[in-house]
Amino acid sequence: MDQEKNLPTYPAGIKNVQSRNTDLPTGDQSNGANNWYTSDKVDKTPVTFKNLYGMSIAGNLFTPKDLNKNTTHPAIVVGAPNGAVKEQSANLYATKMAEYGFVTLSFDQVFWGESDGSPRNAMAPDLYSESFSAAADYFTSLEYVDNDKIGVLGICASGSFALNEAKVDTRLKAIATVSLTDMGAVARGQRDAMGKTAMVDQASNQRTKEIAGQAIAYTSGTPEEIDENSDAFSKEFYDFYRTQRGAAATTTHPTLTSFAKLLNFYSLSDLETVSPRPLLFIAGEKAISLGFSEDAYQAANEPKELYKVPNAGHVDLYDKTDLIPFDKLNEFFDGNL
User: Other CB atoms closer than 10 Å to residue 55's CB: what's the count?
Assistant: First the structure.
């Protein structure tokens, strides 16, 4: 975990990422990078819905323009990467899946973007998981959604939150993950690298500072600047979150005090209980996160599938439309919803 740092943040209600920021570096536009994709075949409607605890969640509802609202249709909840907002990857996937005929919903996690929660950028894995059930609640309120045909598509860490929630909500009938990242394992790996109780001590001491009136501190996430000496991990994420590919405001930086909450998050435990609902794990064959999808596949019971995307890394599957296997996702949800 990085040393504590004070970063700009944003209050609830601020639309911090809405469109491409042309003041930033262009970023890698290869392989059809198109995070800001829109479709003339799809209608997008801003919506809000409540979670189990009364917190408002901001989302975008996507429907095919030719949707017959006099009958019911399958629906998919789309979760963004950790620390991202719906405009970063989730809207792209939701739009593409709506083109296949699904009703889809992207959303800002609580404590991020336009959704409720204070302090901003807090890590709350249980509440993040709950957001997928809250989205299912919202779908059940739409007369043209089939309540028995609700699926989930979780990108990066949203995959771990979606899997976690699927263990306690059987309305989530089919779950696909893309570039799955188990955030609990990530945090525990950082803790072990720091040695003994350094991470927990740091978070604990920061709580004392903040209750005494000091500024909120933020940690880890994508760096704001890189140079030739930066590691490959930092460069890969910077090229999406800090360039025109997918960036605007400072996202991905969680509060230091809440980051330790991830140490108690075990999304892959009891994963076999999701069966017989089907699981699809999609990951780039070159992704730094591939091991998470492999571990999840091993932990799950049938029906399950692990699909490795040739020549793709982790962040490639956030927005590079020539690499993202949308047809595979359509096949999975069409066959299981």
Answer: 18
Sign of CA dihedral 20, 22, 28, 33: positive
| E strand residue ranges, the chain | 42-50, 56-64, 73-79, 103-107, 145-155, 172-178, 279-284, 304-309
CA 144, distance to chain mean position in Å, is 26
Contact 49, 57 (CB under 8 A): yes
Q: Give the CA count within 13 Å in the CB-facing half-sphere of 178.
A: 27
Give the chain's radius of gyration (CA, Å). 19
For the ranges 67-71, 220-224, 288-292, the lowest mean pLDDT is seen at 220-224
- Residue 137 identity: D
pLDDT at 198: 94
**Which residue is listed with tokens 């204070």?**
118
In single-letter form, the type of residue at position 234 comes to S
Using pLDDT thresholds of 50, 70 and 90, give the confidence band for residue 69.
Answer: very high
**What are the tokens at 41?**
């075949």
Tokens representing 218 are 């933020």
The Cα 273–Cα 226 span in angstroms is 42
| Chain CA centroid to CA 187, Å | 16
Q: For residues 312 and 286, is the Cβ–Cβ distance under 8 A?
A: yes
DSSP letter string, 131-164: HHHHHHHHHHT-TTEEEEEEEEEEETHHHHHHHH
Question: Rounded distance, CA 21 to CA 175, Å?
Answer: 32
Instruction: Please work out, in degrees rounded to the nearest 5, the angle formed at the alpha carbon of residue 103 by the alpha carbons of 100 and 109.
Output: 120
